[in-house]
Amino acid sequence: MLFGCAPADQNGAVEQPTVSMDDEFSAKIELLFDKYVQNEWDVMDLYAEDVVCKINNLEFSGRENLMGGFKMHHDALYSNIDIKDMRIQSEYWSDGEVWSRSWFTWTGDGQTTGDSYSNRGHFGYKWEDGRIVELHGYWSEDAQNAEAAAYAAAKASE
């Protein structure tokens, strides 16, 4: 059995967005990834202050909460962070919504364990008025859970 996710119109036709990989929104997403890898946060105002984040099964809001998680990757959990095999596209829907999507491989070395990690991921970004108002992120949490547990255990024994 196959299931579709795109809405059908009254005649049963499925709406198809206009898709671009060479547009301003896709370029901004690439810039966000570049800045994340470099541990630089000067473009984080691309996220709305009250951005809604849906990361796997966790939902929270606020740019500061999101940035805290990204910064923790560099400050405490990983070194040698990189993004590979990245693909980005933006979708322009007939109702005016704009979404950018990214597929990538994240890599990094645990600061506590020394283990090397590689993790495929997917993000979806909803744009309004030139800012990201909603972020959906999907990836395996195994690496993050393992490294965070090792970090917490090391801090507890200090």
Write up this protein.
- This protein is of the alpha+beta class and 158 residues long.
- It has one domain: Nuclear Transport Factor 2, Chain: A (Roll).
- Helices cover 28% and strands 42% of the residues.
- The protein contains three helices and seven strands.
- Strands 1-4-5-6-7-2-3 form a seven-stranded mixed beta sheet, with helices on one face.
- A hairpin with a 5-residue loop joins strand 4 and strand 5.
- It is elongated and about 55 Å long.
- The model has no long low-confidence stretch (mean pLDDT 92).
Short description:
With 158 residues, this protein is α+β, with helices and mostly antiparallel strands. Helix content is 28%, strand content 42%.
In CATH, the architecture is: Roll
Could you tell me the CATH topology label.
Nuclear Transport Factor 2, Chain: A
Widest β-sheet, arrangement of strands: 1-4-5-6-7-2-3
Structural class per helix/strand content? alpha+beta
Radius of gyration: 18 Å
**H/E series:** EHEEHEEEEH
Largest sheet: 7 strands, mixed
Tell me the β content: 35-45%
CATH class: Alpha Beta
Q: In one word, what is the shape?
A: elongated
- Integer count of domains: 1
Question: What are the main properties of this structure?
Answer:
158 residues, alpha+beta, Nuclear Transport Factor 2, Chain: A, seven-stranded mixed beta sheet, 3 helices, elongated
